[in-house]
Amino acid sequence: MLSRPRLGINIDHVATVRNARGGVAPDPVRAALLAIEAGADGITAHLREDRRHIRDDDMARLKREISKPLNFEMAATDEMVRIALATMPHAACLVPEKREERTTEGGLDVVGGHAHVAPAVTRLREAGIRVSLFIEPDEVALRASAALGAPVVELHTGSYCDAVAHGETAKADRELERIRTAARIGTGLGLEVHAGHGIDFSTGETLARIPEIVEFNIGHFLIGEAIFVGLSESVRLMRAALDAGRAHAA
Ligand code: PXP
Hints:
Elements: E1 6-10, H1 12-21, H2 28-37, E2 42-46, H3 56-65, E3 70-74, H4 78-87, E4 91-94, H5 114-126, E5 130-135, H6 139-148, E6 152-156, H7 158-165, H8 169-188, E7 192-196, H9 201-207, E8 213-218, H10 220-229, H11 231-247
Parallel strand pairs: 1-2, 1-8, 2-3, 3-4, 4-5, 5-6, 6-7, 7-8
Bound molecules: pyridoxine-5'-phosphate.
């Protein structure tokens, strides 16, 4: 029997709401604790260069206060590597970062960006932090990730989820197939395969049918849904969606 996929909850956008008023509420650490109580297997937070949501102190408090693995999402910069090494999260996920983007658009350039990604992978790994690379679901990026010595890749599911959201059925089918193929190739290369970006209950259920994906990292939709049903229920419903998908894995 296939194991349940792990559910990592990204709490960045609790901090986005907090920062809109410049105060202390809502507290992303409180959200993390509640998400864990509701069934999250881990917490993800992205400390961006511009600190637009998560701040240094949030990351330190998450590390101190949560009982489940912390996944530190970060750009492969010297500053972020230094902070990650001081924080010592369970995992670090290296992502591309452009100052003007609204969210992480596209995967890491593991081929062209090899020169600055490689030292970050090495320094984090040597410290005992599990490193994942957030990449587009394609074979070249997978092979480059394996060559960089990263044990984990997270496949960018944004194009698939966008196509579903816009009713672009043919594109969604193509993108889903790309993810399915990439998951298979990645596992074949000895990489652990995760997935994330833009996932809602429906796309979560569909993606969980891909047996090679062992972890999902989900944020924006879940935090938005929490406005309507509460955070615990939002996490619980996503857990149920992933489990329902995995029951039909093929
Ligand atoms: N995984 C990675 C690497 C990301 O950059 C993000 C977005 O911060 C997510 C997962 C979560 O995406 P979303 O907030 O769209 O669910």
